[in-house]
Design a protein that fits this description.
5 strands, alpha/beta, 53% helix, globular, single chain, 196 residues
């Protein structure tokens, strides 16, 4: 089983590409954001530590962490954000490593795909056999973010200014899939990556 990390800038279409990949091969796909939300649920690895750090005011009535309240609190305080990330990121990586081992034990899939925005920053190259970069031209990304997420030009500019450029992604990633064109073009690229 080959473990492949998927990364790319916001609006590049990583989820769309992974959806296609899921139809083209026997694989398991895991999204680090989903795992990050899971490990913050009551009874899970990060719930107590995050609640203790941020206070009960970030909890909903049912005791679960309110993601919006949490985001409002941590994104206005860089030190708090760093502390929350120091709790969550290691737990996410441990969870993913356990899932990889479980899939290896089962032996039912040929590929295990890990999608993570901070794939490079969090050292996933050490647990993946390959890193793939999903690219889309900046203007296409802007249009997608306006249509799919309703983001303003200002918000898009702010997010994109904090992300790596193509050259930086490609320095770490062995393969690039250009998702700027139509689905058939993207599918052809995926097919050639899977055949290697």
């Amino acid at each position: 089983m080959k473990v492949i990390g998927i990364t790319g800038g916001v609006g590049a279409g990583k989820s769309e590409v992974l959806c296609m990949i899921g139809q083209m091969c026997r694989c398991r796909i895991i999204y680090s954001d989903d795992v990050g939300n899971r490990v913050k649920e009551p009874g899970e690895a990060c719930y107590e530590a995050v609640t203790e750090l941020l206070g009960v005011e970030v909890l909903k009535e049912d005791g679960t962490i309110d993601r919006r309240k949490m985001a409002d609190k941590i994104f206005s305080d860089q030190e708090l954000l760093r502390k929350v990330n120091a709790i969550i990121h290691p737990a996410v990586k441990t969870y993913i490593l356990n899932e990889i081992e479980e899939e290896r034990r089962k032996g039912l899939v040929d590929y295990f795909f890990v999608e993570a925005a901070l794939l490079i920053e969090e050292g996933y190259d050490k647990i993946c056999d390959e890193l793939w970069y999903i690219h889309a031209d900046d203007e296409i990304r802007r249009v997608r973010l306006k249509v799919s997420r309703g983001y303003s030009d200002e918000k898009i500019k702010q997010i994109m200014s904090h992300q790596r450029c193509r050259e930086e992604f490609e320095k770490y990633c062995g393969r690039t899939i250009d998702n700027s064109g139509d689905r058939a073009c993207t599918r052809t690229q995926i097919d050639s990556c899977l055949k290697v």
